[in-house]
Amino acid sequence: MTLVEENLNAVEANVISQKASETLWQEVDVCRKWLGDELDNIVSQVNIVASQVDPTLQIVQLFLEKSKNKINEGVGSTDDDSKFTSCCANSMYRITETIINDKESHERLFDELSSRIADIMAACLTNLPQVIAMKCHTSVIEKREACVEACSPTFWCD
Fold this sequence. Notes:
Layout: H1 2-8, H2 12-31, E1 33-34, E2 37-38, H3 39-44, H4 55-74, H5 80-101, H6 105-136, H7 141-151
Helix pairs in contact: 1-6, 2-5, 4-5
């Protein structure tokens, strides 16, 4: 997805969002954290037994609160890390608020999120041939070889 995003959406206005999403993804994937908080700690705050509220909804509400806090912490800051964190927190705030306010999604939350993720993946796969053509059709052979090497990990699964 990164290859598609960097090549087809490389306008200046999207650079901060792209860097923020890459930073956030690395934090989640490698460090198992969301905006600095351990994911296991967030899940452990959910009271499954005593609560009448759906545990998934409780997790979404925790993400909403954490996003609000991060937005308030980043107000007025000018460094890149704060910009990235604020961008991610704003996005998560909007997503979680939409989920919480949409009463129907409480029962279908997993299905809705899975569908949205699948749509994003499908859009990237649809654009992949265009990106490969852009990267590989260059006149200089050395540059073409490097572009093919950059595209090739896209096709390998671990």
